[in-house]
Structures are given as C-alpha cells and as structure tokens.
C-alpha cells in the first residue's frame, strides 16, 4: 500500500509519503514515492500511487519546454503522466493516481482528469488513504504544514498493513520572478537617477542665485 499527502499554502506545496513496499517475498523500505522535476523553470513535486514503476518512468519522461502558465503546465504534465501509465500496458492504468505540486498549486487526479485542491491524499489502499486525509482535515488550520503532515503520518504508521516509515517530506516554494520561463516580468531596478535640470534657450546655464546679504564672506 501507499499513502501520499499534499498540502498547499500561498508560499508553496509540501508533500509527505511513506517509503515501504511490500512484495510477495520481502519488505523493501526507503523507496521514494515523490520525485522532483523542473518544469517552466520551477521545481515540481510528483507523488504517485499504484505502481513503483510509475516513479521510474516519471523521472525519465521528457517534459517539453513550456511557458510559465499554471493551466498549460498541468495540461502538459497530465498528458505526460497519462502516457506513462499507458506504457505499463495494464488494463487498470486509469486507477494510477498522481499528486502534482508546482509553485503554490496542487492538483490530484488519474489519467487526464486533474483538479486543483487545497489538500489531498492518494494511495493504493482506501482505508489508510482516507485515514490520512481525515487526519489532515481535523488538524487546526493554524498548525504549520509540517505538523499537520506528521499528524497524518502518525495516524497511518504501523496501523495499516502495508504502510510504514520512514516517511519523507518534500517542499516546493514559489519561484523568484527571474526563474520563471516564458513570463514577462518587469523588474524593479530601484530608484531612477535624477535628471539634470533643463537648459534655458540658447544652451547657457542659468546664473547662480544671489548670495544672502547676511551670508559670511570668505
């Protein structure tokens, strides 16, 4: 089983995922279920559930160069993620879940159906995924994101078969304006230098002001 949780704020997106994989022969720990890619000049987090092969393919899929636009970004990435799932040649590829975090945007979906959310949880098992999601929603909204995610991790760690730590946490922040690709940004160059006073007709400078009668004479 797999549990991946994401929470967005105005400053960025943070994700948490377990790293345990149960095979028929043994238990494998330390398997990353969140990967990091560069899209439109900014970091993107891609969480996945349903198959460990998804992560291997998501690291290697070619994401074309696109301009900075949230809707364009998710449309292109969703198409790439769908092509990855189809390559698995499995009939249930539409059940493969994705959690996408970029800038301060968070999307959840499967296949080409991606919707923006404030927080979400995906997983290969319904019960631990629901428990983690409820743990996030019941936390006080003023809690830091990391504290809310750790509360969700504590809820499912060791309680449900197939879900176990160590848990990993990944964060992306809103990019600086100079990092974004394809976005026209007018940078603040600071205070402009003062322009010299205009010259009077004829090109001569105006005479200096007369000295005050009480001014000292040097």
Fill in the keyword field for this structure.
single chain, 218 residues, alpha+beta, five-stranded antiparallel sheet, four-stranded antiparallel sheet
Quick gist of this model?
The protein is an alpha+beta fold.
Question: Overview of this structure, please?
Answer:
The chain contains four helices and eleven strands. It has 218 residues and is of the alpha+beta class. It has a five-stranded antiparallel β-sheet with strand order 5-6-7-8-9. A four-stranded antiparallel β-sheet has the order 10-1-2-11, covered by helices on one side. It has a two-stranded antiparallel sheet with strand order 3-4. The longest helix is centred in the middle third of the chain and has 18 residues, at 70-87. It starts with a strand and ends in a 45-residue tail after the last strand. Residues 182-194 have low confidence and may be disordered.
Question: What proportion of the residues is helical, as a percent range?
Answer: 10-25%
User: What is the rounded distance between the termini?
Assistant: 91 Å
State the helix count: 4
Oligomer: single chain
Low-confidence stretches: 182-194
- On the 0 to 100 scale, the average pLDDT is 77
β-strand percent reads 25-35%
Give the arrangement of secondary structure elements.
Layout: E1 3-8, E2 12-17, E3 20-22, E4 27-29, E5 34-39, E6 42-49, H1 52-60, H2 70-87, E7 97-102, E8 105-110, E9 113-116, E10 119-123, H3 126-138, H4 145-156, E11 168-173
Antiparallel strand pairs: 1-2, 1-10, 2-11, 3-4, 5-6, 6-7, 7-8, 8-9
């Amino acid at each position: 089983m797999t549990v991946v949780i994401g929470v967005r704020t105005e400053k960025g997106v943070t994700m948490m995922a377990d790293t345990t994989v149960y095979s028929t022969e043994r238990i494998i720990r330390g398997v990353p279920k969140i990967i990091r890619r560069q899209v439109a000049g900014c970091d993107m987090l891609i969480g996945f559930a349903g198959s460990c092969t998804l992560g291997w393919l998501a690291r290697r899929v070619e994401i074309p160069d696109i301009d900075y636009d949230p809707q364009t970004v998710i449309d292109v990435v969703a198409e790439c993620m769908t092509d990855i799932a189809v390559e698995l040649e499995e009939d249930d590829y539409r059940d493969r879940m994705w959690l996408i975090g970029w800038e301060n945007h968070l999307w959840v979906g499967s296949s080409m159906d991606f919707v923006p959310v404030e927080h979400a949880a995906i997983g290969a098992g319904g019960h631990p995924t629901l428990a983690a999601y409820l743990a996030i929603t019941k936390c006080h909204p003023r809690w830091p994101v990391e504290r809310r995610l750790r509360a969700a991790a504590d809820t499912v760690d060791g309680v449900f078969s197939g879900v176990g730590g160590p848990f990993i946490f990944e964060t992306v922040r809103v990019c600086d304006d100079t990092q974004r690709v394809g976005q026209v940004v007018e940078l603040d160059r600071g205070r402009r230098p003062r322009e010299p006073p205009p010259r009077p007709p004829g090109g001569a400078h105006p005479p200096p002001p007369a000295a005050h009668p009480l001014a000292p004479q040097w």
